[in-house]
Structure formats: C-alpha cells, structure tokens
C-alpha cells in the first residue's frame, strides 16, 4: 500500500461521480439494484464521518427510455426534454434508496454559469455546504433542461471536478465501467496494463485516453481533465470500476483499486493563489485596529463589526481589498455581501443582520477560506 493510498484514509469530504454506463441497463432504464449497493457504501462512509456529495449522470438516459426512444437524440430541445422526464425517475430512485437508512437527499442542478459567476458560485457553495452540515446527501447533476449547447459543462466528469473545487473536497471518485486508466485500450488490447498511480495534470496521460462512450458525453479524456480541475483545490482523484465489489469502502481503506491521480496542491493553496493573482478589485473595506490585529495575528474571518467604512460599488462574490485606517492593504477576498448591504451592516454583529437586511447570507463579511493576507 503506497503512502498516497494510505493518505486517502484521512479523506473526510468526498465527491462521488456515477456514470450513465453504471446507472442504466445499457440505456434501458435505471439499474436500481446497483444503485442500492452504492448507496449502502455511501452510508458506510457517512458512518465513518465522511461527507459525500454525489454527481450523478443518468437523467437523459432514463428519459430516453421513458419516452420510448431507441437512440440518443442530437437536437438540444429533445435532450432537454429527455432530461426533464428522466430527472423524475433519477431523483425518485436516489430518495428511495437513501430513505431506507433514514437519510434525506437533495437535488442540485447546476449550469456552467453557476460556477463562472462569482456571486452564483458563492450561492451554490453555501447551499451545498449547508446541506452537508444538515446531514443531507446532495445529488448534483447538470441542469440539462435549461442548458444550451454553448454553456453546458459537456459531461458530468467536468461537473464533478468543479463540484470538488466548490466544496473543497479531499477526494474525487469517478466510477465508470472501466477499471481505471490503461496504457492501451483494454477492449482492443488484452495486454493493456492498468496505470495505478500518476499525477493529475500530467499531459502525457492523455495519449492513453480511449473513445467516448455511447450513453455518456464523456470518456477517459474528460475524466483526466476533471482530475486536473479537482487537483487545483487539493483533491486527489480515483478513476475506478463501479462494478467492483464494495469499491468505495475499499478505496476508503486505502486498497489499490483503480487509477489514483494525485494533487500536488495543499487544500486552499490554489484558491488563495488565485485570489492573490487577481488585479481587478471592485471595492475597499476600511478596518478598525481590532480587525487588523485579528486578521494578521489569528487568521480568522473578517466580521462586519470590524469594518468602519465601505468604498466602491461591488456585488456579492466580487473581490474587495481590506485596508487599515491609513490606507495600507491588509488582505483581499471574496465578499459575502454587496456594497449596499455591507454599508448597512458595517460595525454591527451578525445577529443584527436579519433585522438590518431582512435576510442573512453568511455570518462573516469575508470567510477566512476566501481571504488572503497581502
């Protein structure tokens, strides 16, 4: 057992992606009996204090079956219709499986715009983290019903990598009908060897990617790209066969299953590097001496009570700089409230936010995970 595999035993936040090839009976309806097996393993992970977010394919394939179509359509409006019909069966199947254990699920549909826009990014991040804190298992899928050809993720592998970033996951598991990444296509070459371990983002691995499957939109190439995305926020990725007995539990034990693609980033490092490199500042927060001391000495979040002035016209999710009363920059980060709201709550404690604003987004003005000292 390698040190990297042993390290997986410490992973406490997982994203598990289930592909169409696993969830459907060759495109003919959902494979509910298999879903029960994966859910049982996820429950075992949760009992071991692991948070799990599922990224699930299968809606379009299920919709195609329900509509009686023999082949996957190409027209975007037909794919959207199939997704709308199929989501009903997919959500029902997950809820039924998890309810056997008294666990609630939540459907979360995302588009590319939800991740690209910083305000919507924070909204999605807050929603997912709240669901996790409540003990609910989020089931994430691309919002195929409203996505257009220009803005769709293109595959749920990419979506899974982005969700790993979104919730700052420790581990991304991509379950497919293949054992992992091989040095040659195992369906065409019986001498193909499984690549047990490599580094995420290694461009040389792309030469081993095979063909795209008929049921899904992805292929091994999209899984490699998803691993690269996940690695940017410190998550390792395992590409493995969902057909393997107790595959998730065995991965949690550190067993040598599938292809492990390691990240060389520490969890928050890449996120803070991104913040540090942003030159477009949308506003300024002037801090009192107490807030400056807390940020510099304790590395805590910025609370509104420590802000004495708000400058600029920024929106929630945009980058602002934090300065002391002499104009020296202390930090910068993604702000949880727009300029108008920030002016109303500056100098106030978080228990007053609802009275002042009529709502509460977050107790912090800038969370420490979205804040970097400069």
% residues in beta strands: 15-25%
Distance between the termini: 41 Å
Look at the helices and sheets and give the structural class.
alpha/beta
Q: Biggest sheet: strands, sense, closure?
A: 8 strands, mixed
Number of helices: 14
In CATH, the architecture of the largest domain is 3-Layer(aba) Sandwich
Cross-sheet strand order for the largest sheet: 3-4-2-1-5-7-8-6
* Poorly predicted runs: none
**Radius of gyration, in angstroms, nearest whole number:** 22 Å
Describe this structure in words.
With 374 residues, the chain is α/β, with parallel strands linked by helices. The chain folds into 2 domains: 3-267, Carbamate kinase; 272-373, PUA domain (Archaeosine Trna-guanine Transglycosylase, Chain: A, domain 4, Roll), CATH 2.30.130. The chain has helices at 3-7, 20-23, 32-47, 59-66, 76-99, 112-116, 118-133, 156-166, 220-231, 247-252, 269-277, 289-298, 339-345, 353-357, and strands at 13-18, 51-56, 105-110, 137-142, 171-176, 197-199, 236-241, 259-262, 283-287, 307-312, 319-323, 329-334, 371-373. It has an 8-stranded mixed β-sheet with strand order 3-4-2-1-5-7-8-6, sandwiched between helices. The protein is globular and about 70 Å long. The mean pLDDT is 87.
